[in-house]
Amino acid sequence: MQRVFSGIQPTGIPTLGNYLGAIRNWVTLQDGHECVFCLVDLHAITIWQDPEALRAQTRQQAAVLLASGIDPVRHVLFNQSAVSAHARLAWIFNCVARLGWLNRMTQFKDKAGKDRENHSAGLYVYPNLMAADIMAYKATRVPVGDDQRQHIELANDIAKKFNHDYGVEFFPEIEAFVPPEAARVMSLRDGTKKMSKSDPSEQSRIEMTDKADAIALKIRRAKTDPEPLPSEVDGLEGRPEARNLVGLYAALAELTPQQVLDRHGGEGFGPFKQALTDVLIGRVEPIAKETSRLLADPGHLENVLRDGAQRASTIANPIVDEAERLVGFLR
Ligand code: AQP
């Protein structure tokens, strides 16, 4: 059975982007794979987090994942900092990866913007830690949003260089698994920017804990253009906001964008937004309700994560012990 690894940063409440780009596929992959799901708090602190908020967000993320259908008994769910193998292997990978490779990473450029010099060294080497997350389990399938493809390619380059440098076939080749529809969900305020849980504007995103009235308001306020919806997908060209809303509807209703336009082409945004609000509420509301029920018992959530961390360590420690032996560390 193939082993899957995937992670999400506890930097805020998971958005619809996180859900459609990642979590929903994690739930599906649970059948037929051995899954390791991780709340990547080491990644989260590459940008400063308020310590109390980080703890709260970690519990909140765990609750959203469980409410979405992650099964912590058949699979493994934990927070990254509780398993030291991630940091140990990341250091080795910091020494394997080349600066030129990291310089090409577009996510660092996007996150750091023009103020590059003032960002943490951790943000720069983030892809090395991500490679370590995956390789510490020798996972071979990694479900991610489209924005993470470049990091998966880098993880393969690091693994190949490690294998070459130490003359062994130790780390396997990994495969990014990107869902075909809604692989990239865009901001509701700007169709050219991805929807993000840490975007300063709450109106830019649907959070997986939003209540029905908040969803309706955000969709009503979502940016659009003055034209009605086209009847063919080609007509979405150059209309990023319209494309995003059609893509969202398609992903939620399990239709292709063309099938959405077959139903709604020629409509103005008023009626289409109403239809989109209905499918959104149908999907988000049950998850939001279950999340709030789970959050009422933080002790239970922490136990789930602790148990997951123990089981994760059992898989990762022997792999990272062996990587350290190959490197030449004395034990
Ligand atoms: N807008 C998106 N569309 C599709 N997939 C997305 N993902 C994130 N945003 C979108 C996918 O969600 C998984 C977890 O993401 P993450 O939390 O590890 O980091 P991120 O990509 O940086 O997500 P955010 O929401 O934008 O977080 P912040 O605001 O903290 O930077 C990943 O598989 C990602 O592809």
Automatic annotation (TrEMBL):
A motif ('KMSKS' region) lies at residues 194-198. CDD domains: TrpRS_core (cd00806). ATP binds at Q9, P10, T11, G17, N18, G145, D146, D147, V185, K194, M195, S196, K197, S198. It comes from the Bacteria. GO terms for biological process: tryptophanyl-tRNA aminoacylation. Its EC number is 6.1.1.2. A motif ('HIGH' region) lies at residues 10-18. Belongs to the class-I aminoacyl-tRNA synthetase family. This is Tryptophan--tRNA ligase. It comes from Acetobacter nitrogenifigens DSM 23921 = NBRC 105050.
